[in-house]
Amino acid sequence: MNDLAPARQAVALTGAGISIDSGIPPFRGKGGLWERFDPMEIAHIDSFMRNPAMVWKVLVKDLKDIIDRARPNDGHKGLARLEQLGILKSVITQNIDGLHQMAGNTDVIEFHGTFAWQRCIQCERRIETSWVDASELPPRCTCGGILRPDAVFFGEMIPPAALWRSQEMASHCDVMLVVGTSAVVQPAASMPIIARQSGAVVIEINPEPTPLTGVISSYLIRGKAGDVMNRIVSALEIKR
Ligand code: APR
């Protein structure tokens, strides 16, 4: 708390772990999506282009149902509160679930794109995912083109604006909170390295250590994102 209380330019980097308590499964570890599916078969752009109906059926449709139902948990709400308190500037998220925005954070960089929108691979028109009729797969745009999530598949580039802004935020923050990410997927995992090199205090919130722990992060607060954020927010509110 001593590092966060005086912070005015804190940035959070979040991953799937923060959304677990909202009912969205993580990618790695027990119960993770990549335990059931090979990401290169199911989440690679080449697979999607080869067989969009299969990727929709196996991955996208399930995710749509799960994300449609998901609501922010105390982890997301805690980060929104840190913004209200004037401590947190931005959230860089690898998640595509839109829960940070729903919780109230106003500057969310969606590093891996978003699942809230689908995009036509032919005419590039975007349509809100909740409006997509997935009764026939793959769903199509009015022009006849196939719809794809506006998220980054393996084998695709990070949206340049998201990458550039994230690097900018990472190099100017005073504290970086790294919440619920295994920190193994690049280039997202290098944001804490940029922050540390630029003089920020890097704090991890995770039940498990990661490759950053003890190397890049100053310390790890072990626990679930919601529980830890509740403790942090209560302590900061008492201090004010
Ligand atoms: N609170 C916080 N962290 C948690 C919780 C919890 N309740 N439960 C688990 N975790 C941690 C795990 O210990 C792990 O370190 O969340 C992390 C989840 O890791 P991943 O599943 O690898 O998710 P993420 O880091 O977001 O993955 C990065 O990989 O496949 C790609 O594109 C996908 O954006 C994703 C990227």
What does this molecule look like?
The protein is 35% helix and 18% strand. It is an alpha/beta fold. The strands form two sheets. The chain has a six-stranded parallel sheet with strand order 3-2-1-7-8-9, sandwiched between helices. β7 (175-179), α8 and β8 (201-205) form a beta-alpha-beta unit. α5 (74-84) packs parallel to α9. It is elongated and about 55 Å long. The chain binds adenosine-5-diphosphoribose. The site of adenosine-5-diphosphoribose (APR) has 24 residues, from loops.
Brief summary of the model shown:
It contains 9 helices and 9 strands. It is α/β, with parallel strands linked by helices. The chain has a 6-stranded parallel sheet, sandwiched between helices. Strands 5-4-6 form a 3-stranded antiparallel sheet, covered by helices on one side.
For the largest beta-sheet, the strand count, sense and barrel status come to: 6 strands, parallel
Order of helices and strands: EHHHHHEHEEEEHEHEEH
Proportion of beta-strand residues: 15-25%
| Backbone shape | elongated
Record field, number of beta strands: 9
Average pLDDT works out at: 95
Which strand order do you get reading across the main beta sheet?
Answer: 3-2-1-7-8-9
Sheet/helix structural class? alpha/beta
| Total of DSSP H or I helical runs spanning 4+ residues | 9
Distance between the termini: 12 Å
Radius of gyration: 18 Å
Helix content: 25-40%
The small molecules bound here are: adenosine-5-diphosphoribose
Low-confidence stretches: none
